[in-house]
Amino acid sequence: MISRALFRVPRSVLLIVVCALPLISHAQSKAIPVLLCPFGCGPMAGDTVLMNQMIQSGVPITLLPQETPGYMYNVREMAEKKHWKRTIFSTEDTIVQLGFWGGTPELKEFLPKKVLIKYKLLYGEAWWGQGKFFVTFDPKIKSVADLKGKRISLGLRGQSDWGVFSRLFLEHGYGINPDNSDIRHMTPGALTQQLIDGTTDVAVTPFGTEPNLKAWLIPGPLRQLEAVNKPLYYLGVEKEVVDKINKKFGTTWLHLTLPADTLPKQTEPLSVAVNRGFKASHPDFAEENAYELVKAVAKLGPKMKELHPLWSIWSPELMVHGLSEENVHPGAKRAYVELGWWDKHKQYPAVTYPK
Q1: Rounded distance, CA 60 to CA 334, Å?
Q2: Which domain holds residue 223?
């Protein structure tokens, strides 16, 4: 979550921010704040490039990227009424769903209070795998079940995929928790270095993909592990565990089996879960703004694929995957109908919320 894809912001992007912001008042009639993640994360850079393209193309709307502590922060901050009509945010299906579990024994460590808002989805932007599989250099560790009693390096408690989801899968899928194992929460860079140095037995690492399973994001931490002159062993989560977690929490993690050689040094098929990343809003967000935003992203998406790594996985299918009549923002739906894309959503499992 906080280090979503961990693509560094190049100096050219910094120049875009400095140069583009003064132009917004002249070239754009609508500027929409978007809550993202810490400076340096993938969506922060990707949406800054998108902002610049919106300004240059003359579409009647633009995004104003806002740095935040991360996605777990976003879902709580968006509960504040001041954001409802004017702000959108980056999130994931499973974060919004787990908001209903805030304050419970299972989630209070990560979400102290419930967030009982059925946020509206605008468009999908990525599928994320981190936190739902693990990696090790130790050939004696054969499965996630073998991790009990081991040194396990995860992301921060404020990071959805890296920290929160990995804990949920370990504890509720395999009975592995801080009482019976050495579980450590730290930044992606630190946990990756621990695994390389041998001061931990196993760690999480990232990848991203899209519904067609043709484009793959291999971020920096996994490239660092690939560069180590050792075999890398992947530990997957079984479909039965994914189904168990979904049943318990009412979540919509999707199970995938990655063929061998999909990820670096992956010699065997890998069973994983992915969650879907979205731009979302409160139901009170202006319908016309939602409409214009989706139309702009649909127009600029093909060009954005060539401008930033996170956008290399963009497709119409990614935008509508998980949307439904119940969860989509009405303005976004109107745009999809005009584009001729709306019926695509019927092919895919929807993101659902508690009744």
Answers
A1: 16
A2: 133-275
